[in-house]
């Protein structure tokens, strides 16, 4: 007699413990939980559960947290309560942090059998290579969540596969082979995989690559229309097991609870205050400047950013998190000079709410992939200032392929944690010029804004019923059901 088909799925989502990695996975959890016959558990630690629970404690289908105890201070050398990369007191502890996160494997496996219903699939951040061993051990399919675009995946693949970097000097320009567009870069603009920093070990990256190679597929926080040719190429490489289901940040509204401000952290300013300030500005006149959740830009360099914002003459919202810069702001008279047109947010900003406000006309971003997507969804032209990781690739996509951004002119990666080594590379004048170009009301500016608006509309349509991301989500779930029923993994 044929056995009953498996329809109920239990997804175990395991994010890396950093906001840029956890936030999209939390949104994915919400999205999956809304699908019929799907249960979702997010694996995290107590401090992170506390931080992100408000996003999930909403009406609608529930997502459970599996809270694994974070290893003790004596075992990790990390301060008590430091369970997320953005709370690291110093980048010198980055490797301790990575090792501590690896220790979660045994904690997870200790309680695996108690999970109910039993998990049917693991969706894991790509940097958690050990989840591939856990998936093998429990005979489950593992899906990689990379958190970056297909453009980046294809660049990575082609750089590994070709010999183009052999013998190249760091500052020598080359063309990334085999891409739909002619993308020119230097090695010093590439992510750590090709341009090592002192804080990443090749061995760790290699493990992540090896783990990805034995995974069932890859889920991408992007939407097909944004980078169609790159999606097509990447699907060919991966035998079709690539699902673009984003932009995930748009699912904050899935419960109609309008919680755009909820990003796992309380800001130094309430969302209401921020909106009130923006309500008083002209439509499309304000520049929003934020360099992400973990960047530690050299204070002297940040001061150039402040001076550039001031010199642009536009109203601005500037998110700052560096004590030295805060001192400069007070002592140099900057705050007084810009008090009528500058809103300074110390710490954490309600970014998605700000970007959705009609007064915002441009987004100065460090080009983290979540920020790029959030800018795209809001129909924003962008001023791009990549800092580290894959951010120069994201800049290429925005400025060159999409035509919705202007670069400030950063020339090379400033590796995370090595900011002191790098002096001032971008001057206030460069910042000002890029802002003026983006905010310009001439033909180029209008054209750029038009493209950005159009992309924003397409992004929003992609997640609607019948849209490309919606269809991809259904397809991914169906393909997992299919392999469960074929008993490929023995589940
Ligand atoms: N973010 C925010 N407020 C801030 C800084 C960051 O809400 O003040 C959010 C932002 O909306 C994005 C994430 O944090 O969702 C940052 O991710 P991204 O990939 O852009 O950059 P990362 O911080 O990982 O470098």
Molecular shape: globular
Mean pLDDT: 93
* SS summary, helix count: 19
Spatial strand sequence of the major β-sheet: 3-2-1-4-5-8-9
- Radius of gyration of CA atoms, rounded to a whole number: 22 Å
- Beta-strand content bin: 5-15%
Could you give the distance between the termini?
Answer: 19 Å
DSSP helix fraction: 40-55%
Report the biggest beta sheet as strand number plus sense, adding barrel if it closes. 7 strands, parallel
> What is the strand tally?
15
Q: Which small compounds were modeled alongside the protein? A: uridine-5'-diphosphate
Structural class of the helices, strands and pairings?
Answer: alpha/beta
- Any low-confidence stretches, pLDDT <50, length ≥5? none
Describe the structure.
- The protein is α/β, with parallel strands linked by helices and 491 residues long.
- 41% of the residues lie in helices and 13% in strands.
- It has 19 helices and 15 strands.
- The protein has helices at 19-33, 46-56, 73-76, 94-102, 104-111, 130-137, 150-161, 202-213, 228-237, 271-279, 299-312, 323-331, 334-337, 351-356, 369-377, 391-402, 428-439, 443-462, 468-486; strands at 9-14, 38-44, 64-67, 121-125, 142-145, 173-175, 184-186, 217-220, 242-244, 286-290, 316-320, 342-346, 360-365, 382-384, 405-407.
- The strands form three sheets. It has a seven-stranded parallel sheet, sandwiched between helices. Strands 12-11-10-13-14-15 form a six-stranded parallel sheet, sandwiched between helices.
- The longest helix is centred in the C-terminal third of the chain and has 20 residues, at 443-462.
- The mean pLDDT is 93.
- The chain binds uridine-5'-diphosphate.
- The site of uridine-5'-diphosphate has 19 residues, from helix 1, helix 14 and helix 15.
